[in-house]
Amino acid sequence: MFNLTGLLKRLVIGRARRSEELGETLLPKRLALPIFASDPLSSVAYATQEILLVLTLGGLAYLHFTPWIAGAVVALMTVVVLSYRQVVHAYPSGGGSYEVASTNLGPSAGLVVAASLLVDYVMTVAVSVASGVDNIISAVPALVDQRVPLALIFVALLTAMNLRGVRESGQAFAAPTYLFIGGVLIMVGTGLFRYLLGDAPLAESAKYGIVPEPGEANLAGLALVMVVLRAFSSGCTALTGVEAISNGVPAFRKPKSKNAAATLAAMGIIAITMFVGVTTLAIVAKVHIVQDPCRLTGLPGDCTSYTQRTVIAQLASSVFGGDNSVGFYFIQAATALVLILAANTAFNGFPLLASILAQHRYLPRQLHNRGDRLAFSNGILALAVVAGLLLWAYKANVTSLIHLYILGVFTSFTLSQTGMVRHWNRELRTETDPGLRRRHRMARVVNGVGAVITGFVLVIVLATKFTQGAWLAVLAAVLLWVMMRGIRRHYDAVAAELAVTDPRSELVPPSRVLAIVLVSTIHKPTLRALAYARAFRPDHLEALTVAVDRDASVALKRQWDEYGIDVPLKVLDSPYREITRSVMEYVRSVSRDSPRDVVAVFIPEYVVGHWWENLLHNQSALWLKSRLLFTPGVMVTSVPWQLSSSARADHPAARAPGSVRRGEPTATRKSEDVSTHG
Question: Quick check: bond before 255 cis, omega within 30?
Fold first, then answer.
């Protein structure tokens, strides 16, 4: 039969894949780069801008710090990339920073890393999409009022693409990423070539002056150091997503570690080259950008209606001959697209990490299950929902969201590099080969330097961004850490409670089985329930009805005798017309009278096929069953009677194979307890 929901699902996601096809989803390096490295590669579109936005708080006086800050960011990225290459080789099973910290520093440290990364992945989606929308608005200012709807639409599209599978998303996102890389390198090369020829490009904002923020002009000493450090911490957004490759090693083709390390090196070289080029070109073109346009002097019109273009947009306009040039629109389109697609790094990293945490019982087990396309669908959907809520709450504003960013990634950097130092110390205690010992010592130096530097940056980020909104990211990570510890305690407690200590005692049958069939009227579902209960051959069988309406109960008793039903019918008096309480009290009394017996309650119910039919019937069966389930020694059995409309319903059996096994939420068919009145 025609199934509209199933058809739409197949159009969006594609056909379901068999588990045996998992090997076909493994990635070559050319696809792994845009999938796992699109975030750090695309961050060059706003990392330089974030440095300039902080430095221009003091007007034009502090812009000469730009190359020094950029150099520090490049040095840090180099150290981090080298450090994570060590992680990829040492821990090829995936998990990255979380696995390193858990193995070498203990479960609590591992959870700190995991919580920080999960928060940072959410922020990656929010910041990347918001920044991409900013670049679209730079090219089409008329869309400024549609910022939030555009952001949410892009999140939905990214979600749909990732639900189709890792390989499919990589194929879709590879071209835009490579076009962005090529476009930026051509723009930087053209601009610097013009500069060497004496025809340096000039940004549209170069002619504007900047009024310093109150209290930010002519700073000296510690105050100036804090401004520079704040600009450095903002520029460190260029490092976000570097760890994603170490989390996704299992998704690479064999040899996995070698291919992942090569992809990591390529990502580092390309990202550093583009970041240095964009920053150099921004200095050459004299880009002036501020958080509040009204601090710009020399504007031709009202500052409140002036929309600043992003740094990338200003550079493209100055290099390619204006904002109507083909080059300008190409760079803007490629930048906007790759910034939005940069969220794909999080859409791959978040579900993978969540799956590992679920496997370790720190998150709900459903996050470890694969969907129809062998992607971790539940993790993808969870990430999309939380990121969408953030974009809506912060109105897709990059400046507001950026303060919540990068804190988590430097927490994971610091702890993972510290863990790697302990890893190499342990290896050196057992390794006897001189060549390997030299290699381990060198690796330990790299990771040690990485731990010190990233720890220093973490302190800077905390000091400069905490009061500006980073406290919210810290709070979210703390709450997530507490929640994951609670989930683990719950799973451990359940496992301990369900563990079999003496199989022979658990297999001892009950003394007797007392069966009760709930009845309100005599019809086919009632007779089926009686026949089904009788097939169990219980030690005692009786029917039970509640006398809500005395006349109806008398009529039911008379009809029962006329039909010659050889099952005793017990009538419970209920002067206040309370069905559930009367049934519960009677069942509990039977259970108390015979604590070694099992009471089996059979509930006849019919099944409808349309959602609106459920609105026409009461749901007392659902309420009664939920109450009975909490009663020790009571077994509840539903005996369904399918009405004709249910044959046209979207049955769970018609869904893709394995949907129940994967833990997907199946459509619950609402039912009515026909053994009750009302």
Answer: yes
**Percentage with pLDDT > 70 across the chain:** 85
pLDDT at position 678, please? 36
53: left (phi over 0), alpha (psi -120 to 50) or beta: alpha
Give the contacts of 537 (CB within 8 A, at least 6 positions apart).
none
Q: What is the pLDDT of residues 361-395, one digit of tens each?
A: 999 888 877 765 556 788 888 999 999 998 998 88
Nearest to 329 by CA among 183, 148, 133: 183
Distance linking the first and last C-alpha atoms of the chain: 34
Q: Specify whether the CB–CB gap between 357 and 114 falls below 8 A.
A: yes
Is residue 280's pLDDT more than 90?
Answer: yes
Tell me the three state secondary structure of residue 338.
Answer: helix
Tokens encoding 670: 């609402």
Tokens for 235, please give them. Answer: 């520029």
Question: Would you say 606 and 640 are in contact if contact means Cβ atoms under 8 Å apart?
Answer: yes
The SS3 call for residue 409 is: helix
State the Cα–Cα distance between residues 43 and 278, nearest whole angstrom. 11
> For residue 104, is pLDDT > 70?
yes
Contact 600, 533 (CB under 8 A): yes
Listed in sequence order, the DSSP H helices in 431-570 are 434-465, 470-498, 503-506, 524-535, 550-563
Question: Is the separation of the CB atoms in 447 and 417 below 8 Å?
Answer: yes
- Flag whether pLDDT at 666 surpasses 70: no
Query: What CA–CA distance (Å, rounded) separates 242 from 77?
Result: 9
Residue 316 has pLDDT above 70, yes or no: yes
pLDDT for residue 661 is more than 70: no
Q: Which residues contact 11 (CB under 8 A, 6 or more apart)?
A: none
Q: How far apart are CA 426 and CA 443, in angstroms?
A: 13
The structure tokens 């221009």 sit at 56
CA distances from 230 to 50, 66, 225 (A): 10, 12, 8
Q: What does the block give as tokens for 133? A: 């929308």
This prediction's pTM:
0.70
Q: Are 452 and 415 in contact (CB under 8 A)?
A: no
Q: Which of 365-379, 433-447, 585-599 shows the lowest per-residue confidence on average (mean pLDDT)?
A: 365-379
Residue 350 region, left (φ>0) first, then alpha (ψ -120 to 50), else beta? Answer: alpha
Q: What is the dihedral of CA 619, 624, 626, 627, to 10 degrees?
A: 150
CB 409 within 8 A of CB 77: no
pLDDT category, 279, cuts 50, 70, 90? very high
| Rounded CA separation 144/152 (Å) | 14
Helix (H, G, I), strand (E, B) or coil at 60: coil
Phi, psi of 299 (to 5 degrees): -65, 140
Instruction: Give the residue from 48, 44, 316, 336 showing the smallest Cα distance to 190.
Output: 316
